[in-house]
């Protein structure tokens, strides 16, 4: 299953509703101290260089608090921005801008971080035939949001969830007793199987597997795997891959490289929002 407009819109709404319930519930006890007749203008500024991502979530955070809030963007989704650059300007009731500030920025800082970490690796392997994919190692509740951010950063999506596609991993194989038994139990070719050794790769190929994940293969073992495979199956490599070694794996000609770190090891992008009365 691929991300589409409806899946993204549902995620935006569900994520923001949950975030508002978590932060405000029925009242913002601080913002209610501010008179409701005061209007404000808020400027969101970047405190570091990064890739922008999360505009739908940011805008929804304010619209669900007050439909009267407007937002003008100075940066497009997926565009790189510089330190001290103005990202957007909001107009609305001062107290309502205060209510949405942290909720909106939380989405922006998290999804921009995901897109940025993805883009760094995508650029690293841009001159090869390999593509970068995400995993299910995402922040709970933000699966769709982070997979959206991966695409904004130039990466590709794996399955959206367990309901989506079959991936036979180590613990599944243990339950069947062997790779052969596990593959026989699937009953079709619409699956991916994880192997941890060259021996397991050979068995998977003998069983007719067409989509094989090389889990935690060293560069030397991955090279050996490509020579054994000879194009029989689609190969993917994953595990302990980072900015320092991803190009070495890509140069082997392995079509797919999946990296969990682009969604789970992110460092939030630093934004600030300053509000003034008008």
TrEMBL record:
Keywords: Glycosyltransferase, Pyridine nucleotide biosynthesis, Transferase. The keyword rRNA-binding does not apply. It is an enzyme of class 2 (transferase). Residues 33-112 form the Quinolinate phosphoribosyl transferase N-terminal domain. One of its GO terms (cellular component) is cytoplasm. Residues 115-273 form the Quinolinate phosphoribosyl transferase C-terminal domain. Substrate binds at residues 102, 135-137, 159, 169, 194, 215, 238-240, 259-261. Signal peptide: none annotated. It holds the Pfam family QRPTase_C. PANTHER family: NICOTINATE-NUCLEOTIDE PYROPHOSPHORYLASE [CARBOXYLATING]. This is nicotinate-nucleotide diphosphorylase (carboxylating).
